[in-house]
């Protein structure tokens, strides 16, 4: 043994703890080839997550499923799981398996062993084998739904619930159902036997047309994803302790889900994706939650004019709600507001502006809109936003789709607004626009820090421009002077991915540029 190999001398339980922090089980397996000591450690290490990637090369994971090559690898996978479970003599707090329905006898055996060990966290994911004749489903063992010691249960994929008459899960705290074949009656029976459930996730269960939740006094988190076969019709939740509710329609379904959330005055986190609801419904729904602290809206394309009036709201995110034209906000405690747009930018109004709100803007102009109109709209939006919020921090992401767009910077585009002290910019630009980028950034505000994530050529230009600036520039002969006359000093405070701590001088920064990855984040500190 190498004298420098101190880790191999550690006790087994300490090495097990080290291995538990390695995210990939494949990497854990490779440690067994380091030495005989590590081989013994691997043999005694408890594996709890099993799927075909453990015995397949990465390049073959998708190929074997589509080509029905499961049998080619099944024996190795079965031996691997059998061996790992036989070594779990000290119990098994967690067991996760991903297999196919063809492996049903083996999955039954493995789940039975996990239950014998009084597993507390159980996850069964049965993946579909493409091009396989028929629709083979895996039947959940009856023991699973009567295991009084299970605290977390996740059932995903091609699983069904046949012949289960008894359900008893008094210790269950978390339940997840995704793409499972469960009908309304079985779903209600399952929820009725989980009196202490705290976390519920239901996603794309093809037989489930109604999600009705009641009499769960401890339920605090719910996530619902609309299914396709058939379309989800009703979501009705009555949970007095509910703190977080997320509703997604990942398949862009255009149906009006009957959504009712009652008796939840303590709701603090609300998130909608692809919600097919109009303005009046949304505003009325939102007004029911006075304790709301976080609101996220994504692709809610029927919303046009909305009012957000929640006195405790701290975080607001609106993403690709393309038809929004007017947002009225009364949120005095708002500290973070992110807005991402693919096309138009709405008007924003407030009579009770928040104090020191950090704002993030992510804007991609569509090809159908002229660059001049795009940037005029962006300028108006930034100015309006700054006036509305008096924001302390601003992040702007610009996505360039054609050369003509960044050419508009040559005119009157200001990428900053008055009062900003911390400015973060993420964008690309053509090389012809480089001389005007700094003017666009610093034309209105005098930030103390600027965080840039731009291409390396642009970053190099900015570094050289700041490093070689003149103390008394003669660029402004008139009374109105640009930012160059007010800037007293500039330092590079931080460079992402480097070991340098503290301010860097310009020569070191320029020498680091060739080694940096694309879109490296660099922080500048400015003195005015």
From TrEMBL:
Residues 7-47 form the F-box domain. Coiled coil: none annotated. SUPFAM superfamilies: F-box domain (SSF81383), RNI-like (SSF52047). Residues 103-249, 266-341 form the At1g61320/AtMIF1 LRR domain. Pfam families: F-box, LRR_At1g61320_AtMIF1. PANTHER family: FBD DOMAIN-CONTAINING PROTEIN, OS02G0105600 PROTEIN. This is FBD-associated F-box protein At5g60610-like isoform X1. It comes from Punica granatum (Pomegranate).
